[in-house]
Amino acid sequence: MPVPEERRATLDLAGEELRALLSGVTALAAKEIEAAREGPVFVAPPSAERLHELLDADGALPDDGESLEALLDMCASLLAAGRRTAPTFFGYIQSPPSPVGIAADLLASAADQNVTAWRSAPAATQVERITLRWLGRFVGFSDDAAGIMVGGGSAANLTALLVAVRTLAGPDADRRSLTVYVSQEGHFSIAKAAAALGLAVRRLPVDDAWRLDVDGLRKAVAADRREGRQPLCVVASAGTTATGAVDPLDTVAEIAAEQDLWFHVDGAYGAPAAAVPRHRPLFRGIERADSLAVDAHKWLYAPVDCSALLVRDPGSTSRAFGSGADDYVRVLIAEAEEAFVFWDHGLELSRRFRALKLWMTMRFYGGRRLADTIAEDILMTNHLGELVRRADDLELLSPPSLSVCCFRHVPPGMSDSELDLHNERILAVLQRDGRAYLSNASIGGHLALRACITNFRTTRADVAHAVDVVRAIGARLTHQAAEPA
Fold first, then answer.
1. How high is the mean pLDDT of the chain?
2. CA 378 – CA 384 distance, rounded (Å)
3. Between 68-80 and 48-55, two packed helices, what is the crossing angle to 10 degrees?
4. Phi/psi zone of residue 421: left (φ > 0), alpha (ψ -120 to 50 degrees), beta?
5. DSSP 8-state code for residue 287
6. For residue 328, what are the CA distances in angstroms to 324, 332, 350?
7. Domains in the chain: boundaries
8. Are the CB atoms for 83 and 46 separated by under 8 Å?
9. So what's the pLDDT on residue 328?
């Protein structure tokens, strides 16, 4: 078959069409930012049926593409049908991205760097290594932190456990006897990671403040050694998902050192709060961890996905992952910095330029302004707790910690089991209402309405509005339940 002089098929756009595309996308992005500023969380109640119809979910892939105008119109409808991280979105631990982070994500996609190694993406590799160091300093972990950017806290925790195995266990160790310790309030990704690696997990009790019980840790390690198991790693939480509790990191660090355990801190959510001078004492001991997980998309205002595994010893990750690469990726450069490869420090080979959005965010706002913004989120959460305390139909189930507050609606005359069902109904209505959004947690065996404020746009008025919405829905459901059938 003869080769044509010019391509007959291409995906490129002519100058005017490209400018129209980028202009249209920029306009949609600006509209999304404005919607995130003002709310509501949902324009209309979310519905699988409505999305099915909007997206023509049963339709076939078109043989011929549609117009740019039609595509942008469909994207506008799709975004409008989604969930906005509005000022009253307190549901999950996800901060809205800063405008700078949004712009950085677009630039990263346009540059399309595959950040495998310095030789394939020299500038991107350098930016990632600098960003990891800045992040380690920001949260008080280390001034010379190394590590790797990953997709989320689950990937960071999995990578940390694998580094622990390859650092402390021999090549012939029976992984079924290698044991990981984490509190009952620790994130479920720890158990998932351990299961994926074939490790045993010990869920430890917590104290009255929902923190890991250090006496329980000591007893569990001693018992496992007596029974022939090999204690491997203790995972402490720097901000649990349910209550925002921070484990006693300094004491856990002492036990880890005494028992020769890898000390990993899951700070995916809460570690950025260590940058706030007033709250840094709560995180004393984080600087003694062997590894630390931090999600910048949770509380550093970066777009998803933007997470990091930080390590104190740069050699720990290279010892874990730095062998077995195929010859086609063999590095032929002698100069150390230019010979750096990320595939020797993590599980991925192909990796996107995740660091750019955090690097740009940190450069533009600076550490002080970011820390001040996190401090404001904590103040908003404390204000929520105060509003709950003042209300005669609300009850705190856990005092505010970091940016998490757990409470419930308590009409008179209901038993605990009835209150659980009542608050479950409130949540079901609230999550489709659109004016505010909370999630749930189990606190002392009771269902709680869980609010987490990691939003730099949230004000005291937004907090009060969310509380008013909860109380109004609760009162309405109470009245409906009291009406005769």
1. 94
2. 10
3. 180
4. alpha
5. G
6. 12, 11, 14
7. 15-84, 100-366
8. yes
9. 45
